[in-house]
Amino acid sequence: MKKILIIYTGGTIGMVYDESNKSYQPFDFKQIFNQVPELKKIQVNLSVQSFNPPLDSSNMQPHHWIQLAKAIENNYEKYDGFVVLHGSDTMAYTASALSFMLENLSKPVVFTGSQLPVGEIRTDAKENLITAIEIAASEIKGKAAVPEVCIYFDYNLYRGNRTSKYNSEKFEAFQSVNYPVLAEAGVHIKFNQQVIMKASGKNLIVHTELDSSVGILKIFPGISKSWTESALMAPGIRAIILETFGAGNAPTDNWFIDAVTKTVQSGRVVVNVTQCGGGRVEQGRYETSRHLEAAGVVSGFDMTTEAALAKLMYLMGRKYAGLRLKEQFQKDLRGELTV
What we know:
alpha/beta; Rossmann fold; eight-stranded mixed beta sheet
């Protein structure tokens, strides 16, 4: 039987209702077989490892990403695949980060969670968990079916660094607008093999150095000069993500152009991603983005904000800077962008 390690970091999926406190509390995830007896029917050898204490995903930080990457590294040779149980709010950030940190990955790392706790009658937790395990254990022609970091939620499997949470109430909490689903679960699990990454065959390299000196500035109508300048030149920040309108557009006021230009000239890397859920940045397509290109702003193409943030932390953690950092940022490293 395939050996799968479940790593429980926290989140709604591992909550049960505590009558005494009238609130949801995390339970000992080693008791998962009591909550989901269907797991005993799966022909997979399961082990469980939990963060102590479990984390609400709103408290997930880069040092927790490192902890998770090391847990996978330490168990990599022992297991055929990994299922990471994680709160949905920041799941796309963690999945994006792990995709960069785990270089030459040849085994599935499947993130999942739920919108309702596992003990609720209408919970989505059981289906998400069971199918995530089946995907992690699946093979095609003797090799792992999905040798990459991915997210499984509500019958769809997505590439982790292409995914964003878009809904806080629907069971269909995630979407991947710019990249096709990797698999769909119905009566059978149908893998879209043409869009799944191929394993390199090289040994796994785990990168555990991250530089979190990154900021995000969302452009909005009425944005002030003082706010823009303070955000762009905040102390200790080495890279800034501009969340721009449409295909990468931003105001053309002289003060805004000057602020961005001075930021780039100061040695900080400024990258451009769209606020839209789908589509891509095309700097220079409109007059309102030509000034960004002229100032030296780097296009994020069709990357999500989550992927851009994780990628910058990863690249700067590897001591990339200046022109080399910009070049690496615009390369497709883990399937996170369409060149």
